[in-house]
Design brief:
It contains 9 helices and 23 strands. It is of the alpha+beta class. It folds into 2 domains: about 200 residues, PUA domain-like; about 210 residues, SET domain (Beta-clip-like), CATH 2.170.270. Strands 1, 2, 3, 4, 5, 6 and 7 form a 7-stranded mixed sheet that branches. A 4-stranded mixed sheet has the order 9-16-18-17, with no helix packed on it. Strands 12-21-22-15 form a 4-stranded mixed sheet. A hairpin with a 7-residue loop joins strand 5 and strand 6. Helix 3 runs antiparallel to helix 5. It is elongated, with a radius of gyration of 26 Å. It binds S-adenosylmethionine.
């Protein structure tokens, strides 16, 4: 089956190649350990509550901690391990998170200064935090193979992300760089003609049927009036990318294919999907409509993208009522928002010095709003103070990001082995709020049928802030003044007496109750205070930890302490984790 729409568009939209020529690659040093590790921010944050083993001594706490560390070391053993001892996939994920953090920080900086849009090039060259200079790139020397750590179907939002993933720098410079000497293992390619294409970017739009797209007819590059009318104005030459693809065919060397699409949620306005390896099976000269010579290449895919799971399974959701906002149990009193909680900003809060809500967040705003899309949380925090009912700003204020409702089309679907699950039909950018965990806000000690209820979420903002149990304090956090908080006590005895609260989504809830646990999650849990400042009663909001492509299951780390769940018989309950990630800890609790 030849896909002609690609044939027509590819040349018009421009194709970029990565070539391999000759020379040896300098091995770059691995990443240092002194970096912030954004992934830590999403580990161990879910808090589905089970009866905890009470009154642990300090010694016991220590054991739990070191057990956690031990598990973390062990869990990499099943995955591809690189020099730094980390699973490649995980390391790539961490690095992309670092890049996203860098991007959001740049947006913040730019907004403050001159409101210039943050470009992809600016991200790559950012002087303050130049990831590339720190040699964060992956997959060096893997040009002609599937790139480890990058699954077919992986979506990148920018060229800088791809660059970090190990797609070669050359293509950022376009075809000018094609003759640059590259770094492949020469001995493998002795006797080959160069250049050879390692990666090609198909810039044409493609339809939804792309999942079945196994063959492409690509029109070569050159002779095209890219500035004015995208028409062919002269013959193409058999050189540069055209010659490279021919060499791919001659030597039976596959080429990695990336497809580019427009995307409103992406800061570059584009999304790049990694489509795996293709083989060039045929190449011929042809005449286009204006009778100019063009080269055509017939490419066949070597690997198929995995089939999407159960897209059309019908859904029977029984036994719960959908609620958009948290319901408060009768005996729980939410503190009233008082005037001194609110800021005096007009319409939207922009001045971090005068806005009292920004002051509570460490004299800065936790969110940025890039030109495209809604507000995004720059990084996970112990607690986020949003504007609330006593604030003078309006509902569109960026500091109310998590209150602005669902932005993405979410779909509950049936999994093979974990029951129901949640995914998005849209791309979700990192730092975007996905949904709030709604249900009935109640005292944990008043829960009934706790053993049969899989939908209880312990509000443990306080635990995170104080690193209780396996909760890890969030890195790069600002110190939250306890005078800004209600329900905070540093006295452990007092805190034991304080009631604990949870959100019970057993009977009332929303889509969040279908989100499964993963040891390598793509969401993180964020406590948010907006209408009051009692941390024990904070709202629980799930944010995207990564740029999440459509149809990827949404997951967060439930963060159970191992052996912390006891059954009705008083015995410790154990539940295997089947998240299936390379980094799986093998037990949910
Ligand atoms: C909040 S519910 C998630 C939705 C659930 N899958 C359903 O069908 O309603 C939590 C329950 O899902 C199951 N679950 C979620 N993640 C899991 C995982 N990684 N491994 C095993 N079971 C999991 C467990 O039974 C857990 O108690």
């Amino acid at each position: 089956m030849l896909i002609l729409h690609l044939q027509c568009r590819s040349n018009l939209m421009g194709i970029f190649f990565v070539y391999i020529s000759v020379a040896m690659q300098q091995k770059r040093p691995g990443r240092g350990n002194d970096q912030k590790r954004p992934l830590d921010a999403v580990k161990g944050q879910g808090r589905e509550v089970r009866p905890r083993l009470q009154n642990k001594t300090d010694g016991e706490k220590e054991i739990v901690k070191s057990q956690g560390d031990h598990l973390r070391c062990m869990c990499y053993s099943n995955s591809i391990v690189d020099n730094c001892g980390k699973g490649t996939f995980l390391k790539l994920k961490e690095t992309l998170r670092l890049l996203n953090l860098h991007y959001l920080s740049l947006v913040k900086e730019e907004k403050r200064c001159n409101n210039v849009e943050v470009s992809d090039i600016r991200i790559v060259n950012g002087s303050k935090f130049n990831i590339l200079e720190k040699n964060e790139s992956f997959n060096l020397g893997k040009e002609f193979d599937l790139l480890p750590g990058i699954k077919v179907g992986h979506q990148f939002w920018s060229r800088s992300q791809m660059l970090l993933a190990g797609f070669r720098e050359h293509w950022l410079g376009g075809t000018d760089d094609c003759m640059r000497k590259s770094n492949s293992k020469l001995e493998e390619f002795l006797g080959y003609n160069f250049p050879i294409a390692a990666t090609m970017l198909l810039s044409g739009e493609y339809e939804d049927s792309v999942d079945d797209l196994l063959e492409v007819v690509y029109t070569g590059q050159g002779g095209n009036d890219l500035v004015f009318n995208y028409r062919q104005v002269k013959d193409q030459d058999m050189r540069l990318g055209n010659l490279a693809l021919k060499h791919n065919m001659d030597h039976n060397v596959p080429v990695n294919v990336i497809r580019r699409q427009d995307c409103a949620h992406s800061y570059t306005g584009k999304v790049y999907t990694y489509d795996g390896l293709y083989k060039v099976v045929k190449c011929w000269a042809d005449k286009d409509v204006s009778e100019f010579t063009v080269f055509k290449y017939h490419l066949k895919r070597l690997l198929q993208r995995s089939k999407l799971a159960s897209k059309d399974q019908s859904l029977k959701l029984v036994g719960f009522t959908y609620i958009k906002c948290v319901k408060v149990a009768e005996n729980v009193i939410l503190p009233q928002s008082t005037a001194d909680h609110g800021c005096n900003c007009k319409r939207i809060c922009t001045n971090r010095r005068s806005c009292s809500c920004a002051k509570r967040n460490g004299s800065d705003f936790p969110y940025v709003r890039p030109r495209r899309g809604g507000g995004r949380l720059i990084e996970a925090k112990d607690v986020v103070f949003e504007c609330g009912p006593s604030c003078k700003c309006g509902p569109g204020c960026t500091n109310r990001t998590s209150q602005q409702g669902l932005k993405y089309q979410l779909e509950v679907f049936r999994t093979k082995d974990k029951g129901w699950a949640l995914r998005s039909l849209d791309l979700i950018p990192s730092g975007a709020p996905v949904c709030e965990y709604t249900g009935v806000l109640r005292r944990t000690d008043e829960l009934v049928n706790v053993y049969e209820n899989d939908f209880i979420f312990e509000i443990d903002c306080w635990h995170t802030m104080n690193e209780i149990g396996v909760r890890e304090k969030r890195l790069c956090n600002v110190l939250v003044s306890t005078s800004d908080l209600v329900g905070m006590t540093n006295n452990e005895e007092e805190s034991e007496r304080e009631p604990e609260y949870c959100i019970d989504a057993g009977v009332y809830g929303n889509v969040a109750r279908f989100i499964n646990h993963s040891c390598e999650p793509n969401l993180f849990v964020q406590c948010v205070l907006s209408s009051h400042h009692d941390v024990r009663l904070a709202r629980v909001v799930l944010f995207a930890a990564d740029d999440i492509p459509p149809m990827q299951e949404l997951t967060y780390d439930y963060g159970y302490e191992l052996d912390s769940v006891v059954g009705p018989d008083g015995k410790i309950k154990k539940m295997p984790c089947i998240c299936g990630t390379g980094d799986c800890r093998k037990r949910l609790y």
